Amino acid sequence: MTDLLGELRRTRILAILRGVPARHAPDLVRALQGAGIELFEVALSDSHGLPALRAIRAAFPALTLGAGTVVTPALARQAQEAGAAFLVTPHLAPDVNAFARAQGLGLLAGALTPTEIVAAHAQGSAAVKVFPAGSLGPDYFRQLRGPYPHLPLLAVGGVDASNLGAYLQAGAVGAGIGGALTRTDWSRPDWSALAHTAQELVARARH
């Protein structure tokens, strides 16, 4: 099993690819890798998800690649068959978490409240995906560190270069970043702009 927590602590950024056409997905990964991003999640919330996941896995057999927005065990199985090494949920989904444990897949379980966060960790989440982080801000993470100093938290939702540092300073082990890394016209992708954004994020993560 991938050491997800170790990789998150080392790289600090999980790139979330949502709405990326399969024909462009490997090129996006290549561009983001060139900027220093190593962890990738393909969201399965639209028709692009599974084809993009398959295309990336075929192009990068050794990549640390997960599937996101996994809300049912059936979708979890499809994700595993498409090449996902770890699963990410948007909310506490005990049946998906159990599937990940049974199949030896990595897990980043979604949660928001303290009760959900503790439950997600107990159900095998390598780091708990606190979503939507942007609605509560870095101070929420700072406050959670009081009673849960050793519980690894991943900030997801509303994180970009302007606030990434604040979440890390508040105690998050890393951040899942989607929109900032996929915002382009997919009929003619601007690879250099996407790579520049990724470079800026990687630089912020290292400070």
TrEMBL record:
A Pfam family reported for this protein in Swiss-Prot or TrEMBL: Aldolase
Keyword annotations of the record: Carbohydrate metabolism, Lyase
Pathway where it operates: Carbohydrate acid metabolism
Keyword flag Lyase: yes
Matches recorded under CDD domains: KDPG_aldolase (cd00452)
InterPro entries cross-referenced by the UniProt entry: Aldlse_KDPG_KHG, Aldolase_TIM
Record family assignment: Belongs to the KHG/KDPG aldolase family.
Subunit (UniProt): Homotrimer.
PANTHER family referenced in this protein's UniProt entry, alphabetically: 2-DEHYDRO-3-DEOXY-6-PHOSPHOGALACTONATE ALDOLASE-RELATED, 2-KETO-3-DEOXY-6-PHOSPHOGLUCONATE ALDOLASE
Protein name as annotated: 2-keto-3-deoxy-phosphogluconate aldolase
Taxonomic lineage from the root: Bacteria, Thermotogati, Deinococcota, Deinococci, Deinococcales
